[in-house]
Write a structure and sequence with these properties.
The chain is α+β, with helices and mostly antiparallel strands. Strands 1, 2, 3, 4, 5, 8, 9 and 10 form an eight-stranded antiparallel beta sheet that branches. The longest helix has 22 residues. It starts with a helix and ends with a strand.
Length: 141
């Protein structure tokens, strides 16, 4: 019996098991989304100063929440989202069903059609499948 032969096999086996355990862990694609963001641009138009829209992403619970203040009554919204390395979907956002301004309605419409995202230099851009409808955010706080 060559004990070194068995030790070598045990080491190789341990490395394979360790590698597989790392590969099978759920990836944290949305870690770049994490935190609070302030909307700066809505479909290539600047957001007016009086309109304050935020989005907070929690990748641990796939939870999205935020607030919309268009000068009327500020509202809060929440929901869940799903994301991979560069895709995102937020189909189930819950918000009051009252008209709170054109910007807010356009925001929720664009958010519900979200397909992809990109995070660079403390800036987040969310786009629909065509890339034409976009939400641009900067990191808040």
């Amino acid at each position: 019996m060559n004990i070194f032969k068995y030790i070598k096999k045990a080491i190789v086996f341990a490395l394979v098991v360790f590698s597989l355990s790392l590969a099978l862990q759920s990836p944290s694609y949305a870690a770049g989304l994490e935190g609070k963001w302030k909307l700066t641009s809505l479909n290539d138009s600047s957001v007016p100063e009086e309109v304050k829209i935020t989005a907070t992403f929690d990748p641990n619970q796939n939870r999205l929440e935020g607030s919309v203040d268009t000068g009327f009554v500020p509202i809060r919204y929440f929901g869940s989202y799903e994301s991979t390395e560069n895709t995102i979907q937020a189909p189930g956002v819950v918000r009051p069903r009252v008209f709170i301004g054109n910007e807010a309605e356009e925001y929720f419409s664009t958010l519900s059609s979200a397909q992809s995202y990109d995070v660079k230099d403390q800036k987040l851009t969310i786009s629909d499948y065509s890339g034409r409808r976009k939400l641009s955010f900067v990191k808040a706080e």
